[in-house]
Amino acid sequence: MNGRLLYINLDGLGAYYLQTPDAERRFPALHRLMRSGVFFENAYTGIPSITYPMQCAIVSGCYSAGTGNCDKYYDRAQNAIVPLRRYNRAQTVGELLREQNIPFVSIQQFALEGRGAQRDDPRALYVQPGGDYAVRFALLLELLTQGTLTLKEKTWRFDEAPRAVFFYADDLDSVGHNPAGLAATEEARVENVRARLEAIDRMLARVLDVLQAQGDWTLLLCTDHGMISCQGESRIPELVQALRAFGLSRVAVHTVGPLPEADFDALLTSHDIQCQVFFDRGGVQQDALKNRLLALPFVDQVLTSAELRARGVCPQYADMVVSPVEGAHFSTEHAYLSTLHATHDSLHEKCQHIFAAIQGPGVRSGLRVAQRVQNIDFLPALCERLGVGSLRDAACAPLPDIWR
């Protein structure tokens, strides 16, 4: 492996959090990274923009058509909606490193646990410290500066220094969900996230100092999704009414597990915001239905089967996806949200447009890439560049020319 790789994933880092007039003052380390390396102005995530499927996608270089993880799907044989959790049938970067006998460490990057990395394996170590960003960054800094990892009563000392480190922190996601209705408005919720990002930025500055001093690290910092808020009544009843008016008279609504019956024209389920639609028969004119649904005031975007396949989504995920306007939701679990709720399974720009940057030896400095890229594009390109090899199931586009 030529050089060393550090991949930092800050769960929930939507691009819009940095789109504020005082961003450079509040987040100097992130802006330092953008200046010293390559900043991808139009980096996007996949569908559904949910943590488990997207974290699996990033480390495998493919969305659910490759990983099989679309969070949940309708299994017609079982007549049940099946959750997928961490399921991933694709090769991960951890498995590729293990095959090459390249030592690495994963600090709570759970998509690699059991998928290349193992607890108590010093050549492919997974540790799960829990806690907040400060706990995990302290471990990262110890590893980078001292070559050890101390967790509770145990210290790992490595016979051979790790050549790759994978790091995951979920504070922005946790705060972004607005637990207990802490913020009453979307503006207040966003400010809470930015305040936490300021604290993370201070730890990131220390990491950047270490990387600069050591000189041989390539850093990728990106994320899995952004976040958007919603409140009030679920729009599921109105969506059901619209489907019936289109001629799909038997509409079932279910969240997870076995369905009470199997006789329907359309089945609706929701992660929280957007709605998956399954048709029980062929011949539904999806383009005509899409146009009908887009005319509804609470619908923002609709994707047909063909459009979902073009976005790398597995066929099992849905026959159609309906995403609401900002503030609305299609929850099949919560008929009414009395306080401001926020989550990320949405086609909205706030959820899809993410932060991403790369710096390191051979990476151009101060380059801002306007071309649209996906978060699955990064690790396959870096594996190739650093001489690790190719991810077997990668289904991504090549990065634009970011190399010196």
Explain what the structure shows.
- It is globular and about 65 Å long.
- It contains 13 helices and 23 strands.
- The chain is an alpha/beta fold.
- The chain starts with a strand and ends in a 19-residue tail after the last helix.
- Helix 2 crosses helix 8 and helix 6 runs parallel beside helix 8 (186-214).
- Strand 4 and strand 5 (80-83) form a beta hairpin.
- It has helices at residues 23-26, 28-36, 51-60, 64-67, 93-99, 133-146, 171-176, 186-214, 236-245, 286-294, 305-310, 349-352, 378-385, and strands spanning 4-10, 38-40, 43-44, 72-75, 80-83, 104-107, 124-127, 148-151, 154-157, 164-169, 217-222, 228-233, 251-253, 257-258, 266-270, 275-279, 299-304, 320-324, 336-343, 353-354, 357-359, 367-369, 373-374.
**Structural class based on helices, strands and sheet pairing:** alpha/beta
Estimate what percentage of residues fall within beta strands. 15-25%
- What general outline do the C-alpha atoms trace? globular
The largest pleated sheet is described as:
8 strands, mixed
Distance between the termini: 19 Å
> What share of residues is helical?
25-40%
What does this entry show, briefly?
The chain is of the alpha/beta class.
Main features:
single chain, 404 residues, alpha/beta, 8-stranded mixed β-sheet, 13 helices, globular
Chart the SSEs and their pairings.
Elements: E1 4-10, H1 23-26, H2 28-36, E2 38-40, E3 43-44, H3 51-60, H4 64-67, E4 72-75, E5 80-83, H5 93-99, E6 104-107, E7 124-127, H6 133-146, E8 148-151, E9 154-157, E10 164-169, H7 171-176, H8 186-214, E11 217-222, E12 228-233, H9 236-245, E13 251-253, E14 257-258, E15 266-270, E16 275-279, H10 286-294, E17 299-304, H11 305-310, E18 320-324, E19 336-343, H12 349-352, E20 353-354, E21 357-359, E22 367-369, E23 373-374, H13 378-385
Parallel strand pairs: 1-10, 1-11, 2-22, 3-23, 6-7, 6-10, 13-15
Antiparallel strand pairs: 2-21, 3-20, 4-5, 5-14, 8-9, 11-21, 12-19, 15-16, 16-18, 17-18
Helix pairs in contact: 2-8, 6-8
